[in-house]
Amino acid sequence: MTPNWDDMKVFLAVARLESLSAAGRDLKVDPATVGRRIARFEEQMGAPLFAKSPQGYALTDAGQRLLIHAERAEQAMTGAVEELAGQAGNLSGTIRIGAPDGCANFLLPQVCSRIGKENPDLEIQIVALPRVFNLSKREADMAIGVSAPEAGNRLTVQKITDYKLYLAAARAYLIKHPRIQSLKDLRGHRMIGYIPDMIFDKELDYLAELGLEHVNLASNSVSVQFNAIRAGAGIGVVHGFAMPTAPRLRKVLGDAVSLTRSFYLIRHADDRRLERMNRFAEALSEGLREEVARLEQDQ
């Protein structure tokens, strides 16, 4: 018997979320119903597709092989819907972007707002997490990263733009503490940065690159760090594009100490066939380039 598309959607949800309850929430059906659908689907396919364990549902070898074809079918179905809907007009539907919280807090709201105004039927979801996104499990339709993935398994990577980071502190902090004339002088100051064992990308290890190993106040979130610096708790590394939102922040050692990093757009390779995703990716990339340039110019 040829499986129908509804069965395939249930299979894809469990394969990506590795849980009946999570798949049920995603599909808006009862987990018990998901379990019955999977059992029936496995019977139709004549092979076990999942191995159940305390950690959840893991794909078997047969499930792994089926996943490739299921994702291709999903892409074909999405492409057909787009073509019939006449996607030459405004974008519609839902697109989820994963991004590190610095980009998500200081850039994406403005960029996505402009895209949304031009495409009123489009729902944009921004997932801000201080970690790498797993696109193969569809945690997001596309992700913004601070480095290109080393293992590009079925992924495409496009550089969006460079951006600057600076040492900064609140004006009130600098007034109350000894003057800083070199990096050596920072050893007597309170430093703010990432929790060392929670740095999820080597590109974020800013203080180590500057030869500053000690951290007095740490967080895995760049937004928490930024607010702590703005509150006068110490000195830390701040995105140049975030500086205009905190006029009382001052660069420490001026432009003499700065770092350059890059944003990359990471996508499913198969999504390159979808005009809707391509158009959104183009608008997103162009919007981010313009917003970084605008905010860095306003520092």
Automatic annotation (TrEMBL):
Alphabetical list of Gene3D superfamilies matching this protein: 3.40.190.290, Winged helix-like DNA-binding domain superfamily/Winged helix DNA-binding domain
PROSITE patterns registered for this protein in UniProt: HTH_LYSR
Keyword DNA-binding: yes
Pfam family, one: HTH_1
Domain HTH lysR-type, residue spans: 3-60
Keywords noted in UniProt: DNA-binding, Transcription, Transcription regulation
Lineage top rank: taxon: Bacteria
Molecular function per GO: DNA-binding transcription factor activity; sequence-specific DNA binding
Keyword Cytoplasm recorded: no
Biological process according to GO: DNA-templated transcription
Xref: InterPro entries: LysR-type_TF_proteobact-type, LysR_HTH_N, LysR_subst-bd, WH-like_DNA-bd_sf, WH_DNA-bd_sf
Leader sequence residues: none
UniProt family annotation: Belongs to the LysR transcriptional regulatory family.
Protein name from the UniProt record: HTH-type transcriptional regulator GltC
Native source species: Thalassovita mediterranea
